[in-house]
Structure formats: C-alpha cells, structure tokens
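Bit of a strange request maybe. I'm writing a small parser for structure token strings and I need a real example to test against, not something I typed by hand. Could someone generate the tokens for this chain?
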Amino acid sequence: MGRCANHPERQTSYLCMKHNIYLCDQCLTCRDPDIYCKFRSSCPIHFVTKKGFDDTDTQHTFTKENLS
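Reply from user aminoacidic:
Good idea to test on real output. This should exercise your parser:
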C-alpha cells in the first residue's frame, strides 16, 4: 500500500507501474490510455478505466424481473 500522488492523506493499493505512482479511487484513471505500456495487460487501473467500471457496476441486484 502507498499514498495517493494527488491526495497524500489517502492510503491506496492501486499502483501505476509505468509512472510508479499510487492513485486513490477518486484519482483512478490511466494517464496514458493511448500510449504503449508494457504493464497494460496486468494493470488494474487501465482495466477499470477502459471498461468504465464503477462501484455500481460491480454490485448486482437480482430480482424476479431480471432473472427471467
């Protein structure tokens, strides 16, 4: 764990291996999404940014209507 580059009071586990900086949930975005990065295939920051996930996407609520 490290401290966010933009918010040093926040602890985070998201490390940009290309730039060697930590980013908190609020700052979580790939800094160079269109430029080659050798770490991209295993980068959770790029994955979350590229796919557009957020907290509501990872929590699923199943109801009778969406199960049928």
